[in-house]
Known about the structure:
The chain is of the alpha/beta class. It contains 14 helices and nine strands. The strands form two sheets. A seven-stranded mixed beta sheet has the order 2-3-4-1-5-6-9, sandwiched between helices. The chain has a two-stranded antiparallel ribbon with strand order 7-8. Mean pLDDT is 83; it is low at 303-316 and 376-383.
Amino acid sequence: xxxxxxxxxxxxxxxxxxxxxxxxxxxxxxxxxxxxxxxxxxxxxxxxxxxxxxxxxxxxxxxxxxxxxxxxxxxxxxxxxxxxxxxxxxxxxxxxxxxxxxxxxxxxxxxxxxxxxxxxxxxxxxxxxxxxxxxxxxxxxxxxxxxxxxxxxxxxxxxxxxxxxxxxxxxxxxxxxxxxxxxxxxxxxxxxxxxxxxxxxxxxxxxxxxxxxxxxxxxxxxxxxxxxxxxxxxxxxxxxxxxxxxxxxxxxxxxxxxxxxxxxxxxxxxxxxxxxxxxxxxxxxxxxxxxxxxxxxxxxxxxxxxxxxxxxxxxxxxxxxxxxxxxxxxxxxxxxxxxxxxxxxxxxxxxxxxxxxxxxxxxxxxxxxxxxxxxxxxxxxxx
Length: 383
């Protein structure tokens, strides 16, 4: 017995999603600093709280004090049971062992960047911290130094934080990016303090991270929607080019054996970029593609009636144009859906997906984008 269309689609989408997960990989950040400097708050502000919710992670080797928390396209390495300033030799020794071991593994398993955090309110930077940073550099890690919990009001950093920054800068530390980043990860409306410095820290992290994990870093971070949109557009352009080259039946997800893998790959990629998990992405895609299939049939029928000669050219140039146009419109509409899902929208009170809202949004976006792409002056789509 052949599988039901929904079951077939769910399996195909799930398999494609898993394949893209392996292809995109994972960005791994090592974060160090004394207890209470706000490492978790900083990570949560930029990468979201999913990693923190997974617990303490797994020790990287037996008996190690280094723990890797991994979720999706992000991993964060930190220490448990050891303190910077007293256990530095142990931490660096275990880290060196881990780095040597991981350099024989795929890039997604390696450590890519290290942040060393200092709380601005402590107003001091100790010799042991300098030695630790130099030790990280000797291990070949790009090191970035971050001052945390820096008060800023009306665009001005607290003078004490600026003074601490200048004192540290005089040590000429081997840092991979600009000398020191001044940040505050969490705003405090009562105290009149604003969050700041996060985008600058993220921008610099992109500059020092290996090229092979750039897509994973885009997918992992939560604050730079422009980068997510640019990467989604790249995935759409690739799918559009493949669809045009295929010259296949343009109707999305209906009797289009060549286009289906192209569009599924595009949608799975965009789901990863926006951090939409496989279960939600699959359910949303089922709702969306039902709308796209109906809209695609309407489009092709209307196009054949409207464009002179289209009836004889559907297997040639017109088919390629429409196939690429539909793929572009599907990609644009799906990006909007994933962006809303990543913001916690398109759900009901219980948190379950609102399939009707997803279907309506997708079809509205799909129609609007197709109006921009249809050849022959065709301006409207049947409802």
